[in-house]
Design a protein that fits this description.
Blueprint lengths: L3 H33 L6 H8 L3 H7 L3 H23 L6 H18 L1 H11 L3 H7 L2 H28 L7 H21 L1 E7 L2 E6 L2 H17 L3
Antiparallel strand pairs: 1-2
């Protein structure tokens, strides 16, 4: 037996332990996000939930932004499963786009921390975020977002092919729908519609998630079909 084999074995075991610890930290972060919201989840709370010192978290993640990014990846993986279940390539593109939009909104309403986490990261300029999050984490986050957006882009491409949607940049549309959708889900969470009762006199009325969802569906279809 060569002297390299025991060393390789120890390295492999250390890598497995590292992955398991990272998963524990991400699972604890996700649980705290869902229970308390993103704003109230502190690094100390996450460390306490895992049973470790907060310094250990920084051995695995470059900072809070990276922890947020990789927790968002978990949400995105779940969202992709919801989108896949909602889609049906056998039906017309407009129906497919409606179902995808509804599934997106329903997921955001069910998991408001997903919306908070995604918006927190989107508020950071791209170059700034890249400086604070490791290349590997950025890749995983990009892959998670791109996988979800690819489902929307594929539906829009199908609609362009059959003439029901206008010819356009399908990837840009998918990105715009994602960004505006997050804003719409936040509005559904607030549950209030602000408007003028008279010039200069504001009033507030209740707004349900279903109202927001229907509006977002109509908006998605209008953006896909305008000029078709």
């Amino acid at each position: 037996m060569s002297s390299a084999e025991p060393t390789d074995g120890r390295r492999s075991a250390a890598a497995v332990r590292r992955r398991l610890r990272e998963k524990e930290i991400l699972d604890a972060t996700r649980a705290l996000f869902d229970a308390r919201g993103v704003r109230d989840a502190q690094i100390e709370d996450i460390a306490r939930a895992v049973g470790i010192n907060r310094a250990i978290i920084y051995r695995h993640f470059s900072g809070k932004e990276e922890l947020f990014a990789l927790t968002l990846v978990g949400y995105l993986d779940e969202l992709d499963g919801r989108l896949a279940a909602a889609d049906d390539p056998e039906v017309e593109p407009s129906t497919r786009l409606r179902r995808l939009t509804e599934a997106f909104v329903d997921y955001g309403v069910e998991f408001p921390a997903f919306v908070d986490c995604a918006q927190t990261l989107m508020r950071r300029p791209g170059p700034e975020l890249l400086e604070e999050v490791s290349e590997g984490a950025v890749y995983r986050l990009g892959r998670g977002i791109a996988t979800c957006l690819a489902r929307v882009a594929a539906v829009v491409e199908a609609g362009i092919a059959d003439g029901s949607f206008r010819d356009q940049d399908v990837h840009l549309l998918a990105n715009v729908l994602y960004a505006t959708g997050l804003g719409g889900m936040q509005l559904a969470r607030v549950g209030m519609l602000v408007k003028e009762a008279a010039p200069g006199v504001p009033t507030v009325s209740p707004l349900s998630p279903e109202q927001v969802k229907e509006h977002m569906v109509a908006t998605a279809l209008a953006m896909a079909t305008s000029g078709a």
